[in-house]
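Collaborator request, handled under Task 6.
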Amino acid sequence: MSTLITLEGLDGSGKSTICESLQNILPEVTFTREPTDSWYGDLVTESMYNDDADSLAELFLFTADHAAHLSRVIRPSLASGTTVISDRYADSRFAYQAAALDNSRIDAPLEYIQSIHEPFSRRPDATIYLDIDPETAVTRAGATNKFERVQYLERVATQYEQLIAAEPTRFYRVDATQSIVDVKEDVNTILRTILDDETSTQFDEW
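C-alpha cells returned to the collaborator:
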C-alpha cells in the first residue's frame, strides 16, 4: 500500500540532507518537497525573502503551492502505489504560518489554517520530526531569510509541539542535535517500522 511520509522540523534541522541520502537507497520512492519547484513555489520563495510580504497573503501562496503539489505529485504517486517522502508538507505551513499570524486579526491562527486545508489536503501517514532548538537552528541555517530568526523559530517550535501533542501516534521525534550519522540511524530505524520488510532491507547500505 502506498504511504505518505513527511519530514518536518525547524530550518537547519537536516531534513534536506536526510532526503538526499535516502534518494540514493530508495530509488522506487517519489521524493518531493515544499515549497515546490513549480511557479507556485517560486512565488512562495520570493515571499520568504521579502520582509514586507503580508503574512495572510503569504499563507495563501503557500496553500496554493500545496494544492498544486497534491494534484500534480502527491495524489498521482500514491494512486500508482508509490510511496512518497516529502521534505516539508502541511505541518510546516501550520507551524510557520501560524507563528507568522500570531497577534494578527486572525483568532486561533493554527486552527484557522488547518480548517483551510481540511477540505482538500491529504494527511500524512507518518511524520518524522527532526527536533532542534531554535538557537542551533539559526546557527546552522545562517539566518538567510525572515523565517530563520530565533524569536520567530521559538514560536514555530511551540506550534510544532501543539501538532505533535494532537497526533502523537503520527509523529516520530528524532534528536537532530546529534551527529548526522546518528540522525540517519534513527531515521533508518523509524522507516523500518513504517515501510515493509523488503524495502527496509535497503537501509543496510545506508
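The cover message to the collaborator said: "The radius of gyration is 16 Å. The first strand starts at residue 4 and ends at 9. Please let us know whether this matches your experimental observations."
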